[in-house]
Design a protein that fits this description.
This protein is mostly helical. The chain is 80% helix and 0% strand. The chain contains 17 helices and no strands. Helix 3 packs antiparallel against helix 11. The radius of gyration is 20 Å and the shape is globular. This is Membrane protein.
Length: 400
C-alpha cells in the first residue's frame, strides 16, 4: 500500500483519510446505538452528540497531528515511550478489530438481507468478497479512499432523505442540544468510544502516513482532514438522530429486536426497510475495510514480510472474520469484552501519544500547542475513568 512520498497530499488523499475514519466509525453498532439512545433521551440526545463531537475533535486532532509530525505509527510511538508498550497496543487493536469485524461482516449480511431478501450468511460472504476485491488492486489505497467517499455520500444522502420524511421537531432538538432535560454519561462514553475508540483512533493518521504525508509542514492539512472526518460522522449521527426523533415523537414504538430497521420501516414502509438495507450494508462493508486495514497497519512494522505482503494479510484478516461468523455466528461474549476493551484503547493510546509529543527523539523540535495537550489530557482522564467502570461492569456481567 506504499505510495510515493509527497509533502503536499492531494485533496483525494485528505478526503480519503477523513472518510476512512468516518466510515470506519459508522458501522452496525453506530446505527443501533444512535437509535436506542435517541428513543431513551429524545431531543436531549442532541446534547450527547454535541459533547461527544467536541471530545472526538480533541482526541483526533491530537492523535493525527502527533502521528504525522513524528512520521511514526501508533505502535512505534508507544515503543519509544515504553519498550513493549507498542506490542501491547497492537495486540489490543488487532483483537478488538477482529472481534468487531465479525460484527461488521454480520451487519453487511443483515444489510443485504434487508435490501434484497438474501440469506444473511450468504450476504456476509458476498460482502467480504467485495471488501477483499478492493485489496486485490495494485493501488488498493486509492480504491479504498474512493469506496469510503462514495459510501459515505450515499449514506448521508439517504439518511437525510429519511430524516426529512419523518418531520422531526427540529426546533426542540436544537433547544435540547444546549439545554438538555436528561443527560446520559453511558451514552457519551459509548458514542466517543464508538467514534474514535479502538482502531478507529488511528485509521486516518495511519492512512496519511501511507500516503507519504509527514512533518510539521503537513499540520494544516492534517487538521483539515481530521476535522472533516469528525464532521462527516457528526452529520450522519445528526441525520439518524432526527429520523428516529421524528418517528418516536409521533408515539410510534420501535421494534426492540431491530430498532434501527424499524425506524426506516415506520417512516417509509417497505421502501424504508430497503433503504435501511442499503445504509446498513454501506456502513458495515466500509467498517470491514477500515478495521482490517488499520488493524494490519499496527503489525506491519514488526517484520518486513508483514509490510511486503500487507494486502494479503488484510485479505486474510477479512476472510478469518467472515469464516468465524459463517461457522459460529457472532460470539457475543467476545464482542462484549472487546467493546469494553475498546473504551480503554483511546485513553491508553492518546495518553501515550501526549507523553511522546514532549520527547525530542519522537517529534524533534516540534512544540505541541498547550490547549491541545490540556484538551487531550481531559479526554484521557474522562474516558479512562469511565472506560474502567464500563470494563468492570461488563466483566461482572460475563462472570455472573
Amino acid at each position: 500500500m506504499g505510495e510515493k512520498v509527497t509533502q503536499k497530499a492531494s485533496r483525494s488523499v485528505l478526503l480519503g483519510a477523513a472518510f476512512l475514519m468516518a466510515t470506519s466509525s459508522i458501522g452496525p453498532g453506530f446505527l443501533t446505538q444512535t437509535t436506542v439512545f435517541t428513543e431513551q433521551l429524545l431531543a436531549s440526545f442532541g446534547f450527547v452528540i454535541l459533547v461527544s463531537v467536541l471530545l472526538d475533535i480533541f482526541a483526533q486532532m491530537n492523535v493525527w497531528r502527533i502521528i504525522v509530525v513524528s512520521g511514526l505509527r501508533g505502535q512505534e510511538i508507544a515503543n519509544k515511550v515504553l519498550p513493549g508498550l507498542g506490542i501491547v497496543l497492537a495486540v489490543l487493536i488487532v483483537f478488538g478489530g477482529l472481534a468487531f469485524n465479525i460484527g461488521n461482516v454480520a451487519g453487511a449480511g443483515l444489510g443485504l438481507n434487508a435490501m434484497l431478501g438474501m440469506d444473511t450468511v450468504t450476504g456476509a460472504i458476498l460482502s467480504a468478497i467485495f471488501a477483499i476485491v478492493i485489496f486485490l488492486f495494485k493501488e488498493a489505497s486509492k480504491v479504498m479512499d474512493r469506496a469510503a467517499q462514495i459510501a459515505g455520500a450515499v449514506m448521508i444522502f439517504l439518511m437525510f432523505y429519511v430524516a426529512v420524511s419523518t418531520h422531526p421537531p427540529v426546533g426542540e432538538a436544537i433547544v435540547r442540544t444546549f439545554a438538555p432535560t436528561d443527560i446520559s454519561i453511558l451514552a457519551i462514553v459509548t458514542l466517543v468510544g464508538g467514534t474514535v475508540g479502538g482502531y478507529i483512533t488511528f485509521a486516518g493518521g495511519h492512512r496519511l502516513l501511507d500516503a507519504g504525508l509527514k512533518g510539521v509542514e503537513a499540520i494544516p492539512e492534517v487538521n483539515k482532514s481530521s476535522i472533516t472526518g469528525i464532521i462527516v460522522t457528526a452529520v450522519m449521527r445528526i441525520a439518524l438522530f432526527l429520523a428516529v426523533l421524528g418517528v418516536v415523537s409521533q408515539g410510534l414504538k420501535l421494534d426492540a429486536a431491530n430498532p434501527a430497521a424499524s425506524v426506516f420501516q415506520l417512516a417509509l414502509g417497505d421502501i424504508g426497510y430497503r433503504i435501511f438495507g442499503v445504509i446498513m450494508w454501506a456502513a458495515a462493508v466500509t467498517s470491514v475495510v477500515g478495521a482490517a486495514y488499520t488493524s494490519v497497519s499496527f503489525i506491519k512494522t514488526f517484520h518486513k514480510n508483514i509490510a511486503k505482503y500487507e494486502n494479503w494479510i488484510i485479505i486474510a484478516f477479512i476472510a478469518i472474520s467472515t469464516l468465524i461468523f459463517a461457522l459460529i455466528g457472532k460470539p457475543v461474549n467476545v464482542l462484549v469484552l472487546a467493546g469494553a476493551l475498546n473504551g480503554l484503547i483511546l485513553p491508553l493510546a492518546l495518553g501515550t501519544l501526549l507523553i511522546a509529543v514532549y520527547k525530542k527523539d519522537v517529534v524533534g523540535s516540534y512544540k505541541h500547542p498547550i490547549w491541545l495537550t490540556i484538551t487531550g489530557a481531559f479526554v484521557v482522564v474522562v474516558m479512562g475513568v469511565l472506560g474502567i467502570m464500563t470494563l468492570i461492569e461488563q466483566i461482572g456481567i460475563l462472570v455472573g
